Amino acid sequence: MHVQQKKWAIALGALMIVGGLTGCGVQEGTQSHDSTSYANHGGQQHVAGDVRELTAGVTVLPSFVKGLDPKVGQIYQIAAANADVLKSMPCYCGCGESVGHKSNLDCFIHEMKPNGQVVWDSHGTKCGTCLDIAAESAMLKQEGKSLKEIRQIIDSKYKDGYAAPTPTPMPS
Question: Would you kindly state where each structural domain of the chain is located, as residue ranges?
Fold first, then answer.
């Protein structure tokens, strides 16, 4: 195993302990799709209790992760680095129904703009299920699993005792 891979494996293993955060505690609400300028709100927008913040790119984390457990910020970095994986993974916290998420990626990133800017979503900061699915999916990808294999593992693990999954299409 390469040094970089070992570092990721150790970091991901440590992040799996994030289980201290349980459930999302999201409140029912409607998701806003208005085009409110982020610049007019200090770079932030509030949607159904979650904060969305625009940053210059995936290497610039949103301000809402500052002051939280550093593991949360690390998982946000992992989510950005593994966006291709997380967009194929459902979330089982109930965010599909409560805030209209379509995949686990939506818990962390609302939009990746063509110019490289990122609109981050704070939902993942308060949800252990979201954080765990992201960390597990990235770790499984690091182990060489295919998207379909990762999806089957996630679905099997979270199908019982969790909320309905987001409507995420099965990867081909």
Answer: 44-172
Global pTM reads 0.78
DSSP string across 127-156: -HHHHHHHHHHHHHHHTT--HHHHHHHHHH
Residue 99: both structure tokens together: 């805030």
Closest of 111, 158, 164, 114 to residue 134, by C-alpha: 158
* Other beta carbons within 10 Å of 77: 16
pLDDT at 49: 79
- Cβ burial, residue 85 (10 Å; 0-12/13-18/19+): buried
Of 56, 25, 31, which Cα lies nearest the Cα of 43? 56
| Spatial separation of the C-alpha atoms in residues 94 and 5, rounded to whole Å | 32
Residue 47, strand partner residues:
50
Q: Divide the 172 residues of the chain into consecutive groups of 10 and give the mean pLDDT of each group.
A: 51 46 42 37 60 97 97 98 98 96 98 98 96 98 98 98 98 92
